User: Fold this.
Amino acid sequence: MDYGLARNLPFRSLLTIIYILPTVAYGQLLPLEDAKYEEHVVKGVRDRSVLLACGDVVLPMVVFWSFTKMGSDIPRAVAISNGMEAKVERGAVILGNVTLNNSSLEIENLQTAAEGRFMCQTMYEEEEDIKVAYFYIELIVLVPVSKPFLQMNNSTPVEGMPVVMTCTIKEGTHPVEYSWQRHTNRDGTVAVAETVDGLLNLTSANRTHMGWYTCIAHNEVNSQISDRMYLDVIYGPDEPVISVEPFAVNQHGFSANEQEEVIMTCLAPSNPPSHYIWFYNSSQVYSGQKYVITRISRTQTGIYTCLAQNTHLNTRTQTAIILTVYYLPEGKPSCMPLPATNFQDVALHCSWQGGFPPVRLRWVKSRRGGNSMLATYSNATQLHQGMDLRNGTSYTCVASHPGLREETICRTTVWVPGGSPTCSAVATKQNEFLMLTCDWAGGEPRMTLWWRDWRDHVLGGLKQSHNIFVMKSNTTLGGKEFTCVAAHPLLARAAECHIRLEPPKLVVERAKVSLFEGSEVQLACLLQGAYLGSEVFWYSNKNQVIRTDARKYRLHQENAWFNLTLRDTEWMRDSGVYRCAAMNAVGNTSASINLLVKKYPSPPNVTISKLMYTRHRTEVELEWQTQGSGNLTGFVVQRREAKKAPKKQLASSWETVANDIDPDIRDQKLGGLDPAVVYAFRILAVNHRTTGHPSEMKTPADPPFNAYPAVIGAGVAGMIVATITSLLVFQYIIRHRESNPRLHDLLFRLAGGEAREHISTPEDAETVAGMEGEATEQLGEPSTTAGETSAEVSPGEATAAPGEATTAPEEPTAAPDDASSPAPDLDPTDDDPPVNVTITVTATP
Assistant:
């Protein structure tokens, strides 16, 4: 330790004074017996702070602290104070952060180098005497234990092997004590007793030693816990244990009901966890701990083996169970009473075949309860006399099975239906066979039926509720009677029903029917007594069978009426005899109807009175007249090309361009014409379906020519052009009068004197003003006058084009009007003579 005191002379002088404190004070020797001595032991912790007190001196005059390290006898100065100021030796930093407050020495961030002997020498005043005190303090620096470090010689031992764990610390003041803990999810944290200081020795590790281990080191300063380390003991697998859900056992093992979900779980303790493999009758079916069969079936009965493997140790164990699948028979138990002993007794029969194990059945009388017989498997039968049973007595069959959560019952009631049997006969396969049917539904047991012919011979066999007997058709069976017999154990006497086979009979509504052509008519016949499902056919006037898909005819049946409807009847074609025929397996018959279709009278003849093109020759205007008397319902207009065809080529056919024209209309406008084609037209009158003679063939005439609108248009255009030209000339002369003075004077000045008008009276002035107004009106409205004039021109002025034949009636033509307004006529009797007016126009530049 180098304090450098030799280079500080003032401080060296102070040290000299301190050393002689015990002897001299203020020039006087101090008595040695008055000096005070104390010794203390103080413990401090490294890196923390410690306070060393210099006795109980409050206001010392001089304080000097020195330090003697362990194993040395040489003290070293640490700090000094004269009561006014304090100074710490720079070399004291190896002890920590040293400060001197009054007389106490405080060391922060204490270092292990500060462990040793501190001496405090102080001089203080007490009762006006100066005294000296010496305090010796032995400082012990304690070091906290560091975080322990845990080690294992084998962290994954096989069960039975020894394991040694060691816990060490880097530093810490002794004595240091150690403790061990183990943590598991099941037990939590528990203390481990098998410890010796920092050593944990497991001579034979087993699965109970598995867990997280920690080591705790502590001394008088602190305690620290190490990081945890996992001890993973390898073992197993143990012998597997198989559990089955739902849990059901029998004498051989486990059982399950068909269609249930069966869960088989295999558990074999092992570390690492076992790998499970399932076998069904020695065949591998699944890999995993839990084997689930969603809907188990009867074919899955057998031996199930679970094999557990430890892949780390390559060890395996296995176990097996027998699983029996119980299954119910198909459907439900059936119970029914059956006739026995020639319909004298009732046998109660209950059956539910199949299943494993077989279903147990027993009969119970519903009203009284209790068992009427011992239980049997799959079938149970009881016999009762029919006359001893009351109508409506009920019996119950009870079924029990391991696959049933509760017993299933089947209930039946012995009863006889009311009423009597019903009989019918129909023919099948185009009347080749006859089918006799007898029905009597209801009853338990059901009614027993059989057929008997007119000779009392039994036909066919015995049937329940419904008996059908089929025989070959024969016309000799007409009028023969057949009987159906019904028997039941609760009936004292059998019941019967009878049926007689009859041929069909037909009746027509009207034997003769007449109507006009184009109408719709319905013919009807009635089938009386529709025995044996008689078939009805209609024959046409040509004695052909009418089919249902014929367009001309429509077949319709309403109950026993068979109707034939003829659509759009035609004269001659549809007239004749129609026949309705019926047949069954034992005979046939027919009925006739005479149909007369009349023709409508011919309509009157038609002549074309006018046929003329329009202006653009794409339309024609047609007018016509009728001649003679007769009914009509409309007109038809036809056309074709009018040009002549070569001899070897046929003329084009007539094309209908307008039909369904109202009978009151006598004119029609037809369009869609080609201007380059010449057409011929004709018209026909129609009375319903009857068409009259066609009119004469005509070609349309061209429209009259009218050029007046073109002339008026040209005149108006000329006036406008002349007016604009005159205005431009006048403007030019006025602007260039200096270059053309003669032309200017000729138009404006030379005519000035001659153009003047002499007005001597007021009447002359009014006359002049009126003429000027008329002139202005005529010049300003040329289009109006032309329009009015054009409206007065009659289209009949134009003449028809030459070479066109027409039968249109001649119309009078009006005389053409002038384009300008007509001049008023002068009355010779007028007393006022004409007046000459002179107008003078003066133009100024």
Summary: The chain is about 10% helix and 40% strand. Residues 1-28, 750-833, 837-845 have pLDDT under 50 and may be disordered. Helices lie at 9-19, 708-735, 741-749, 762-780, 782-792.
